[in-house]
Automatic annotation (TrEMBL):
Catalytic activity reported: Hydrolysis of terminal, non-reducing alpha-D-galactose residues in alpha-D-galactosides, including galactose oligosaccharides, galactomannans and galactolipids
Keywords recorded for this protein, A-Z: Disulfide bond, Glycosidase, Hydrolase, Membrane, Signal, Transmembrane, Transmembrane helix
Pfam short name (any one): Melibiase_2
Source organism per UniProt: Perilla frutescens var. hirtella
Record-listed E.C. numbers: 3.2.1.22
Domain of life, per lineage: Eukaryota
GO MF terms held by the record: alpha-galactosidase activity
Gene3D superfamilies the UniProt entry points to: Aldolase class I (3.20.20.70), Golgi alpha-mannosidase II (2.60.40.1180)
Designated name of the protein: Alpha-galactosidase
Length: 424
């Protein structure tokens, strides 16, 4: 049989991609940048359009706070109410951090006489419903934790075989979000264990965000889009440079499977917990935003440093994460020693792009992003806005852009057609 010409194959593939996008626009209002022919080769979107759970949530990645990274099991209703207060007083809530999520250890060690989960009577004497009422009174949403196994990871009751009863209980407490873990799972395939809770949540009649925490063991990006609103692609993050960078790389390979309605989740933010430097935390926040990862704060927001507050409240970086186009940015090329000079990029709405120049070496270096490598026409002219300095560093750049980046640091920029910047 005659071999089909390569140019014809590429043209057909581009036509299919265009068709998928046009179909998706009716639902998600996403529009590709004008430089589609170049961008389509880099930002594979062939898996888009298969989404999603259909509960109307997660049109952009979820934002909020979770108790685990800082408090572990040392939680009570005072911690939760004070955190809700702090999200409001620090301005975090106004920026979109609206979920207040209680992780493991909120419940008693065993179900009650009627077979129901019960909140720990010492830690949560007022009950979860009263706590939810308080959080809602602040204009926030509340989340809770359970497990698709016999027990949670801290050996509290799990929801396996109790999905409908537990979902009904959560709904009666006015819960808005469920993080659903993977411990003590009896070796049952996750594609069997996670759908029953989806169905149970839907059956309650309450709209509840469904966050799967399967740790990426069975590649949930391949199957979770019809089950949950987000899915963990990795093991638990640790508050170290090594953990954060490794997790970013793992999450990156699943970029083609995320989009409005369902997101890849490389785990919560460690910003502010003390294990990394300011520059490393800024890189962490930048890359999570670019990857359209959920921005779930994991530090004690009641006692943030000025630097932590500065990172978490950067509105321009948050806007990248919450961009309505909903295309996960990714690592587009690397060079230098062991590939430690990295360019991550992605398309944004309004014909813009985001690029991150990430130096994963320990010494400062000049890193260059070439237009064609990030999906832009080399001869086109773009403004370059530094989202950390909140200023334009160029109103008209062509071909490429270079900047010196400190060791373990990440600089992040928004590129827009030069005519658009000059008109503002």
């Amino acid at each position: 049989m005659a071999k089909t010409p390569a140019n014809y194959v590429r043209a057909c593939r581009l036509t299919v991609i265009l068709y998928v996008y046009v179909a998706a626009v009716a639902v998600t209002a996403r529009v590709l940048p004008l430089q589609l022919s170049l961008a389509a080769k880099i930002y594979d979107t062939s898996k888009y359009g298969i989404l999603q759970l259909g509960n109307g949530l997660a049109q952009t990645p979820q934002m909020g706070w979770n108790s685990w990274n800082f408090f572990n099991c040392d939680i009570d209703e005072k911690v939760i109410t004070e955190t809700a207060d702090a999200l409001v007083t620090t301005g975090l809530a106004k920026l979109g951090y609206v979920y207040v999520n209680i992780d493991d250890c909120w419940s008693e060690l065993a179900r009650d006489s009627e077979g129901n989960m019960a909140p720990d009577s010492k830690a949560f004497p007022s009950g979860i419903k009263a706590l939810a009422d308080y959080v809602h009174s602040k204009g926030l949403k509340i989340g809770i934790y359970s497990d698709a196994g016999l027990f949670t990871c801290q050996v509290r009751p799990g929801s396996l075989k109790h999905e409908y009863d537990d979902a009904a209980l959560f709904a009666s407490w006015d819960i808005d979000y469920l993080k659903y873990d993977n411990c003590f799972n009896l070796g049952i395939d996750p594609q069997e264990r996670y759908p029953p809770m989806r169905d149970a949540l839907n059956a309650t009649g309450r709209t509840i965000f469904y966050s799967l925490c399967e740790w990426g063991v069975n590649d949930p990006a391949l199957w979770a889009s019809k089950i949950g609103n987000s899915w963990r692609t990795t093991d638990d993050i640790e508050d170290t440079w090594e953990s954060m960078t490794a997790i970013a790389d793992i999450n990156d390979k699943w970029a083609a499977y995320a989009g409005p309605g369902g997101w890849n989740d490389p785990d919560m933010l460690e910003v502010g917990n003390g294990g990394m430097t300011y520059q490393e935390y800024r890189a962490h926040f930048s890359i999570w935003a670019l990857m359209k990862a959920p921005l779930i704060i994991g530090c004690d927001v009641r006692n943030m440093t000025t630097e932590t507050h500065e990172i978490l409240t950067n509105e321009e970086v948050i806007a990248v994460n919450q961009d309505p186009l909903g295309v996960q940015g990714r690592k587009v090329y690397t060079y230098g020693p062991d590939g430690c000079y990295q360019i991550w990029a992605g398309p944004l709405s309004e014909q813009r792009s985001v690029i991150a120049l990430w130096n994963r070496c320990s010494k400062a270096a000049t890193i260059t992003a070439k237009w064609d490598a990030v999906g832009l026409e080399p001869s086109a002219s773009f403004s370059v806005r530094d989202v950390w300095k909140h200023e334009y560093v160029s109103l008209s750049s062509t071909t490429s852009f270079s900047v010196q980046v400190e060791g373990h640091a990440c600089e992040m920029y928004i590129l827009a057609p030069a005519t658009a910047a000059s008109a503002t």
